[in-house]
């Protein structure tokens, strides 16, 4: 059997397995679901066929390297994996959103391979100890066993799912001595031994997302390994975060988004003194944050609490956040904010207070000379010469606009203004004096009478003098907002990476969130 036949026969067998497994599912399902099941089957088979075509094309590019190899399965598949060839054994449940662009990842599920001797069967085809990524989705299995992983000596990324996985025990993963990242997703975990990951000294990233911690009685207490740098608890139901939850001295990134947190307890982060980034975004419930929660975090660079039903931060002791670069408080219910506290963050590069409808900020009271990005809900724009480094300015509800407020040696590249009560007819080019070589500028309003056709034409002319136009757009019929904006040819990615003069952590913040 030649190399091409080996590749084709592998994928043919995979398609046969999919067909056989789907027929079993159909036999156990109500007729009303048959169309859905067959659609998923067809989607999955089409995906497998695409991988077959990609594999054959790739084989053509490397076959000259393999001409001297013996014609046997083990050598051909070993070579394929060394060259990041594509092998997938996906679950039908994943058919709708398969990561088809990823290559070199082995995906195993007991829907298409029998649980017994699964890895032994695969080991006859490929060298499992050369695989760097493994995705396991065993349905109907309540716990994992360390012997499953003893053949995977090179695994760096592990993805674990399963509709019945309940238990993570000590030493489950002790064979994965080169592991760097472990991702758990959609697994209804009820118990996690606090020493589950003990001994995994190369593990840097740990993720429990999409319902892994939804059991209301589940208590998460993790202590090992000490070198862990990032934990992601996205989309769970963690009611509280306490001092006992995590004990990772070297942890740098903590993501608690979409958890319905009710309480961040006293000294909650006191065992995480080296934290650099905290995300508590889209919480979905009003959080009670203890005044001492953020004490001692003198290495924290990013604190983002957007859309988490926060009514005030004035009671929080934030004096230790001496290295803060980003403070995100958008889309909350803030009515007042103590700017004396905010002004202590002398290295702050991003202040985001937009989306707090009742929060009016006196821009003259902000004394942050290193600001690069300022986003406010409601303010009066006066002279901004105290912000010489400012590159991004966004105001949702502009109360007034002083003439020549930009007329100084400024760095503004991106300007977005929402107008409501201003006499728009009085706004002319002099209001934008000092702005030049911009990347983006926009005026918007919920009042279509303000941005009527005459004004839109006038602002189009003004914008063309401020920016090397690649595109100028007006929208008057989409939702409640009408707007006019102009942009040059610089892409969003290039704007963040090449023009915005921001620190590495701030770039990471913008890449994690949908700005600009």
Automatic annotation (TrEMBL):
It is found in: Membrane. GO terms for biological process: signal transduction. It holds the Pfam family LRR_8. The keyword Transmembrane helix applies. Gene3D superfamilies: Ribonuclease Inhibitor. One of its GO terms (cellular component) is plasma membrane. Keywords: Membrane, Signal, Transmembrane, Transmembrane helix. GO terms for molecular function: signaling receptor activity. It is a single-pass membrane protein. This is Uncharacterized protein.
């Amino acid at each position: 059997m030649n190399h091409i036949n080996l590749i084709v026969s592998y994928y043919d067998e995979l398609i046969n397995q999919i067909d056989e497994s789907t027929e079993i599912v159909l036999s156990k399902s109500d007729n009303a679901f048959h169309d859905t099941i067959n659609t998923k089957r067809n989607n999955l088979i089409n995906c497998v066929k695409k991988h077959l075509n990609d594999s054959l094309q790739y084989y053509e590019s490397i076959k000259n390297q393999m001409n001297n190899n013996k014609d046997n399965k083990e050598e051909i598949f070993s070579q394929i994996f060394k060259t990041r060839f594509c092998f997938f054994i996906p679950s039908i449940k994943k058919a709708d959103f398969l990561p088809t662009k990823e290559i070199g990842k082995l995906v195993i599920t007991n829907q298409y391979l029998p649980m017994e001797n699964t890895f032994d069967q695969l080991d006859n085809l490929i060298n499992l100890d050369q695989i760097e990524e493994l995705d396991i989705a065993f349905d109907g299995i309540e716990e994992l066993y360390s012997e499953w992983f003893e053949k995977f000596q090179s695994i760096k990324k592990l993805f674990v799912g399963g509709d019945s996985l309940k238990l993570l025990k000590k030493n489950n993963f002790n064979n994965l001595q080169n592991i760097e990242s472990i991702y758990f997703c959609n697994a209804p975990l009820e118990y996690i031994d606090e020493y589950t990951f003990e001994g995994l000294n190369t593990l840097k990233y740990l993720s429990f997302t999409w319902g892994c911690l939804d059991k209301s009685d589940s208590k998460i207490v993790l202590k090992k390994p000490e070198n862990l740098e990032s934990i992601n608890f996205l989309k769970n139901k963690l009611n509280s975060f306490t001092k006992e939850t995590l004990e990772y001295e070297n942890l740098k990134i903590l993501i608690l988004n979409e958890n319905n947190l009710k309480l961040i307890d006293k000294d909650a982060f006191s065992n995480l003194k080296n934290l650099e980034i905290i995300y508590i975004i889209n919480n979905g419930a009003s959080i009670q944050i203890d005044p001492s929660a953020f004490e001692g975090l003198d290495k924290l660079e990013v604190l983002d609490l957007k859309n988490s039903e926060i009514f005030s931060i004035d009671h929080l002791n934030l004096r230790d956040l001496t290295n803060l670069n980003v403070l995100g408080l958008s889309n909350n219910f803030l009515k007042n904010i103590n700017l004396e506290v905010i002004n202590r963050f002398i290295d702050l590069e991003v202040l985001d207070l937009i989306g707090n409808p009742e929060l009016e900020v006196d821009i003259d009271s902000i004394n942050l000379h290193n600001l690069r990005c300022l986003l406010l809900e409601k303010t009066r724009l006066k002279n901004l010469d105290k912000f010489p480094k400012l590159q991004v300015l966004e105001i949702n509800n502009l109360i007034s606009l002083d003439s020549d407020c930009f007329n100084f040696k400024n760095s503004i590249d991106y300007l977005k203004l929402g107008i409501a009560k201003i006499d728009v007819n009085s706004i002319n080019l002099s209001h934008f004096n000092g702005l030049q070589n911009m990347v983006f500028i926009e005026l918007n309003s919920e009042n279509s009478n303000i941005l009527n056709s005459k004004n839109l034409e006038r602002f189009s002319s003004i914008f063309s003098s401020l920016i090397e136009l690649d595109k100028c757009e007006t929208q008057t019929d989409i939702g409640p907002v009408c707007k006019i904006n102009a942009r040059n040819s610089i892409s969003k990615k290039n704007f963040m990476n090449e023009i915005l003069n921001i620190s590495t952590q701030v770039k990471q913040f913008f890449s994690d969130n949908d700005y600009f």
